[in-house]
Amino acid sequence: MNCFVPDELVVERGSESSSVFNNLCSTLPQVPVRIVDDVRVTAVYDRSVDHFGAAKKKLFLTRHRGEFFKKCPGSEGQVCCNYFVINFASNCPMDCSYCYLQDYLSDNASLKVFSNIGDLIDEADRTLHRHRGLFFRIGTGEITDSLALEPYTGIVREIIPYFAEQSNVLLELKTKSDCVDNLLDLDPKGRIVVAWSMNPRPVIERDEHGTASFAERLAAARRCQEAGYRLGFHFDPIIEYPDWENDYQPMVEEIFATVDWRRVSWLSLGVLRETPGLKRVMRQRFPQTRLLAGEQVPCPDGKLRYFQPQRIQMYRKMVQWIRRFAPMVQIYLCMESKEIWQQVFGFFPACEKELGNQLAPLD
Amino acid sequence: MDWLEEISLRDDKSIQDILAEKAIYDTSTNPRLGRADRLKRIKEQLRRQRYPRLAQTEDQIRAHINGLKLHPEIHLSVAPGLEGGRLRVEFQPGSTAELRALVAKLNDATLLSSMGAIFELLSGDSGKEQN
User: Fold this and answer.
1) What are the phi and psi torsion angles at A169 (to 5°)?
2) Of B5, B51, B123, which has the smallest distance from its Cβ to A309's Cβ?
């Protein structure tokens, strides 16, 4: 994987004493550092050009002033998996053509990592202790890639020891990178899931710019599994195109020929979906992408997806291929209705807690 | 306009070539159609070109609905884009006797293969896959 190197490191005054700052300086000695009083003033981009792409070139280090720990917003009317999110960074150095952050972070596009990781851990600790009887599945990849900047920030290395000790947590690190070196000598104690978003090689090459290749992701997954981590895989977005099956089926086979499915915590499936706003941005930033050539229709939650019979067939095929190699692995659909669940699996979860509990580890 | 651009990108054709295709050209130059009708038909032709498999599935469903011969007393329809996977059934009886008759007619229709075929198409179960 080609490692991302920012053009500049912009540091909010007060963050220089953080471990993240020290890590950034020691791993990126060639990158100029600028200390500023207010990063918000500095993070202004000319919107007449590709401001979202421009925002990925600088890396900001700042304190996070809001909540770190939140419920995943999900999608209205769709089956929810009771996921929580912790955001230690905002935006991503990669540039997938379908990425929803192009729309979601359009007005706040600067690539940021947060320096007050101690506050993150304190906040998580208060919540987890207050609700010891509940199980939490927590992800760190909602508005960033969990590991793409890890070689420079060391944030994940700092939080893993804490979460590994929590009895009511599974922490998921979702990524499209192969930046796992920082994790391999830590003991996850069964509490950490490293998860990869996966697509076949043609999709990665055409539309997942700046990410690790399929082979790199799979090799990293294997290394993590050998180091004791649970794994997850997210087939999301699944892209429909002529002969898509001829790419996706071998991809599934190759994954399960490489990793032990019995130590895979979950797999998720989700077809390509976008809001109308995201579609506009995709057309502007990636005018030649063929992703928008599919037969997508508006759905009740406002997002565009392949029309229902088509995506049911896609899900059924994926489930069939997965089951051939991983008969008992937990599979769930991301942002789909009860009707789709019923058609694909023959049942739907009664509530989000039921699905969340199904995805809990069998200790 | 979006549909034209998306067809152009998908099929590697210029927008001019798409609009010059016989079916669309014939509609656009048909002197017996008013402007509004022309636009409506061209829009439908473009929709079918933009969403060929969806249009094919909708056609199949429509054919099965027609085959049930329930119209005009009982109106069957599906959601735009087939989202939701449900069949909408509407009728407006004017008396108990009429209600009983319509329900019986509907019940008889459930025994026909076309009714099953409609639900198969909606649920992605049809033998002809959406490839």
Assistant:
1) -140, 145
2) B123
Residue indicated by tokens 């899900």? A315
Q: Which one of B9, B18, B78, B86 makes the best mutation probe of the A interface by having the most chain A beta carbons within 10 Å?
A: B9
Helix ranges, A95-200 (H): 101-104, 117-130, 150-153, 155-164
Q: Are A195 and A232 in contact (CB under 8 A)?
A: yes
Q: Which of A290, A300, A308 sits opposite B82 (nearest CB)?
A: A308
Q: CA A134 to CA B40: how far, in whole Å? A: 56
Token pair for B4: 């034209």
Is B79:B22 a contact under the CB 8 Å cutoff? no
- Which positions ≥6 away from A69 have C-beta within 8 Å? A84, A85, A86, A120, A123, A124, A127, A138
Chain A interface, mutation test: which of B48, B60, B119, B123, most A Cβ atoms within 10 Å?
A: B123
Chain B interface includes A299 (CB < 8 A): yes
Q: What is the pLDDT along chain B (131 residues), one digit of tens a residue?
A: 889 999 999 999 999 999 999 889 889 888 898 999 999 999 999 999 999 999 999 999 999 999 999 989 999 999 989 999 999 999 999 999 999 999 999 999 999 999 999 999 999 987 544 44
Q: CB–CB of A34/A58 below 8 Å?
A: no
Model-level pTM? 0.93
HEC string for A287-342:
CCCCHHHCCEEECCCCCEEECHHHHHHHHHHHHHHHHHHCCCCCEEECCCCHHHHH
B128 touches chain A (CB under 8 A): no
Letter string b/e over residues A184-213, b meaning 16 or more CB atoms within 10 A of that residue's CB:
eebebeebbbbbbbbbbebbbebbbebbbe
- Size of chain A in residues: 363
| Chain A from 211 to 240: CB within 8 A of any B CB | none
Distance from CA of A299 to the nearest CA of B (A): 7
Token pair 């700046």: residue: A210
Handedness of CA B24, B25, B31, B36 (dihedral sign): positive
**What are the distances in angstroms from CA A362 to CA A195, A197, A258, A329, A359?**
18, 23, 23, 12, 9
Residue A116, CB half-sphere, CA atoms under 13 Å: how many?
Answer: 15
Q: Report how many Cβ contacts below 8 Å link chain A to chain B.
A: 68
Q: Give the residue from A296, A345, A340 showing the smallest Cα distance to A319.
A: A345
CB A181 within 8 A of CB A148: no
